[in-house]
Amino acid sequence: MTSEFKWDWVVKATHWTVAGLFFTNFFITSPGSDTHELTGYIVIAAIVIRLLWGLVTTSPARLSRFAPSVPSAIEHLKEVLHEKRDSHVGHNPAGAIMIWAMWTLILGTAISGWSMETDMFWGVGWVEEVHETLANLTMLAVTIHVSAIIVMTKLVKKNYLKSMLP
């Protein structure tokens, strides 16, 4: 990623929509409220839009351009620590793992939340526990993600946040 790299408007819009609404549901809305549910549905829609965009775009946002790979992520982190550089355009290998993990966790949170409203799982305690656990794991992943952006910005002297701003 060069200092001039900017994500496209679809990536920025879906990123900030998911981030803002996840935080809204985690900290502000009342679980089970209409607002909480609607917010969750919008989060699902935003992720689906982003995933569909990743199938058709030719930009670094294309899903095939950042397939998760633990060996590649380890090699990348070694490079960052030893050489203090990140030459990737778009998601680097460590970032790719985190993005896929967050999408999976958020979609799992949304699906379990939706399931709690169905006749089959209404009032089933373990479904609520799964929902809460996935939401908490998502918050942990978000915390790691934001921390990694801060650390990487300092290590390689690139402003990663700038690429996600208008």
Automatic annotation (TrEMBL):
Please state the protein's primary subcellular location. membrane
Asked if the record carries the keyword Cell membrane, the reply is: yes
Q: Which InterPro entries match?
A: Cyt_b561_bac/Ni-Hgenase (IPR011577), Di-haem_cyt_TM (IPR016174), Hydrogenase_cytochrome (IPR051542)
Spans traversing the lipid bilayer: 38-56, 94-114, 134-156
Q: Where is the signal peptide?
A: none
Membrane topology value: Multi-pass membrane protein
The protein's name is Cytochrome B
In its UniProt entry, the species of origin is given as Vibrio albus
